[in-house]
What does this fold into?
Amino acid sequence: MPDMIPGDLRSEANGVINTMGGIATIVGTVGLARLMDISITIPGLGPTKEILAFPVASVLVIAAVLLLFFFVKEKKASAHEESEKQEPILQSLKVIFAEEDKSALFILLSLLFWFIGYQGLLPFVGLYSKDILQTSSGTASLAAGMVGIAYAIFAIPSGIIAHRIGRKKTIRVSLAFLVVLLAGIYFHDPLTSHLSAAIRQYTFWALLFCFGIFWVSVVTNSFPMLWQMSTYRTVGIYTGLYYFFSQLASIISPPITGGFIDLFGFRAIFLYGSVSMLVAFILMGKVHRGEPSEDPESEVDDSKVGE
It folds into this structure.
């Protein structure tokens, strides 16, 4: 996408990409997950639940591969063969650390912490729903589905808002709301314990829907900020580092969250997420580049690449 879309429109374009991801989340959590409650009879095993979603998901994956193969025509960047060189992760980090302006480094550290909060939270909201709110397996998955619905609805508007008021401001305001919101969700269980199960469930879904609004405002605009700091030769390095830090968070966060759950109970995941978002908010304050109006070619010294 950054090879085809001008820098000042990448927030909106990334919003379109995230909208498709949100639709996929809705299909997975609201659609496929409901199949977990359907009982089917398998020869030799008899009636069984929690299995039908897997073959259906396999069909969707095969369909996606076929669509990609037959309809996506990738253009080869023949005029920029030097950009095809693969840089080791340590060399990529060296490029970032060598920059005089540390904005790229701080946004990478910020996204590490907000993904630590996200990856420590979302995988467990279904279990929280089952254990604390006493919902079924299929219904419990709808909690994450609320995030996906908000993701799909607000991804494009969040890019438009960032284009008007600035990406950094949009991200920091969203992170501030996430800090307060997650701290508030921590108190949802004791504050609603006297209410009916349906009201407890719906209010929890509403809070997660709000979480999705601010979360998509963060992720929609962070990637374009990083791209804006790069040039054609370094965009691959910056993209790789984005995924390195985000996937690093997905590796280290769930075990840490699991430890907090064992020590303090399921409610601790929300305080864990709140503190992670607060650290990300502080780090984002040290980011000074990445706005749509900037010229990335003048900001990054390509001579440092491959040294």
The two ends are 27 Å apart (CA to CA).
